[in-house]
Structure formats: structure tokens, C-alpha cells
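Handout, section B. The chain below has 382 residues.
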Amino acid sequence: MRLKNCHNFQDFRKLAKKRLPAPIFHYIDGAADDEVTYRRNTSAYDDVDLVPSVLAGVEEVDLSTTIFGKKIDMPLYCAPTALQRLFHHHGERGVAKAAGKYGTMFGVSSLGTVSLEEISALNDTPKMFQFYFHKDRGLNDAMLERAKAAKFDVMALTVDTITGGNRERDLRTGFTSPPKLTPSSLFSFATKPMWGINYMLREKMQLPMLQDHVSEGTSTNTSVGDYFSNMLDQSMNWNDAEKLCSQWGGHFALKGIMSVEDAKRAVDIGCTGIMVSNHGGRQLDGSRSNFDQLAEIVDAVGDKIDVICEGGIQRGTHVLKALSIGAKACSGGRLYLYALAAAGEAGVERALGQYRAELERDMKLMGCTSVDQLSRSNLRFR
């Protein structure tokens, strides 16, 4: 299978599986416990039908929307995800360039593998920094100041990783960062020589935001679940979030909101947006899907802050359904990570191009020429 044969999310997933050693593929692909929430994040969209209109004059379609005070050219952006140069040596650089080509936002993780300063110089589109609240307050302060200095547009505090989810695939494969060979994984790494050559001979794998403060994940092997459980501050509370919002002084979001009461409190502490998200099903298995929970959160706070639907997106129609509920935009990780793993920057470009084409085509078939014309009158729930 080759990149030119990738026409949708599942095609990119298949090519990524072909290119990556099993521990790294399953780190992207897996979720918590029985992966019920992970599957529901996508299947939830199947329980809602679109009702199109016709004869609407749809020659020109405007896909742009405004989130966090910034216009983006399509209502879908690349959510921040960790360890991207493990998946392909282009890493965040390739994703940032692809996002810039399509005029959409790009998020960088605290566990990113390229510096904020370099990413900031790569494109002019809006950029988000995802913040993990560490026990080390000096590290927290340093990350905040670097994101400010790099002129990132949005800070998103992840609030659903107070401890690591039970990602059993990672336990079985022995996935860590940096990767380590185990008797069970040796064959998998040996059968993916191009990945190994790129990993060994190209720029050394680093976590620029963390490496001056912690060894875990950089020089000390650790799983992401163990990192969350051991390095992040489990005492983090609403006062900490409010203080961080004030220190940042710009557009600020909470990533991982799933309840109406938490959404209201986000408004109260000064947030300008929230990501309705369960971390891709990677934390609390059995939690509700983001799309299932979207309507009641939009009804509660959608007129006060930007509500983003994050996770489970595999089709342009999924985005249209979330926008019809009232989300300002959608985001996701796997929707571009498989493409990155499959073919680097070119893969992400192809994936984003396909999403844009799907969105434009589906908008025309819906009889809509701008995203603000989408509403719940377009939907029927089964």
C-alpha cells in the first residue's frame, strides 16, 4: 500500500501499521481498558442523520470559522499530541507546515519533540500550546514563559490526565519513550528497518520543553501513563487553573471538559474556550463520548465561550454533525497522526486536503454555503 492509495482515515491507519514497529503503532492506536469509549467516540456520529436541503445555489462554499479570536480556513484543526518524531522524523515540523498550507490551527504538546521557538517560525496560522501541569512549579513557569515568548495564540490546559489511563496495549508491547527493545518487541522493530534507520541516524529524539527539568521521557525510559501518574500534579484544582489563566493573559482553554458544571466553571475562571474531549478514550474508559455530550454543553455555555468537539473524527460528515449541534470547530489527533506515520508531511497534507474536500463537497450536498448555516434542524437523532 502506498500514499497515493490512501483515500480515507482507515487507509492511513493501514499504511501507518505497515510502517511503524508494533509498540509505536499501538501507542497511537490504543486506548484505555476495553477501549469502549474509544470506539464510541466515532460510532456516536452514526446515531445522527443529516437532512440535506437542495436548490440552494452552492457554487461557492466558505468553510472558514473563528475560534479564540482567530480565523481559520476550515473548521477542523490538528490537536496537540505528544512524541510526534517517534512516529515519523518530520514530526511537528511536518504537521505545522501541512496545517499552514490549509490555513488551520496546529497544537503543540508539552511532550512535543520540536521546540516552540522553531514551530512558531514555521507558519503564520494560529498555534496552540497544550499545557501539562507538573509537580515541578519551576517547569510550569518555564513552559508558560516560553509559550508567551514564542507568541502562541492559545494555551490549552489538559485537565483529564490527573493520573495515567490503563492503556493495556502499551503494557503488552512495552511501549516507552524513548523506545526500548524487549524480547517481545525485538522482532517488530527488526521488521521495520526504515523506521529504525531514521530514528538512529537523524536528529536525536528530544523533548525540548521538559529536558532541562526532568529526565523521564528523555533520557529515562517511561511510559506515558507512568509519566502522567508520577510527574503531573494530582493536587491541581480550579484555583490553579484560574491562576494559570490569569498568568497567561490571553486566549485560554480547558482541554478535557465533559460535564456541564465544569463547562460553566471554565467560563467563571475566564476561559475563552473548552475542548469537549475524553482524551481519545485513552483515560477513563466507560466515559461518555464527546459527541454524545456536546449538545448539553453547547446549550449551557456555547453563547459565552468557544466549544470545540475533539476526538473520534474520521469523516467530513462527522465535523458537519458537530457543527450542527453548535461546536465552533472540531479537532483530533489520530485523524492526522496515522497520516504522519504513513508518509510524514506529505501524508498530513494529503489527509487535511481530503478532509477539506469532504467538507466542501458535503456542505454543497447539504445545501449550505457557510458553516454558520448549519443547525440542529439539519439533524435527526435515531
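Note. The chain has a mean pLDDT of 95. Compare this with the example in section A.
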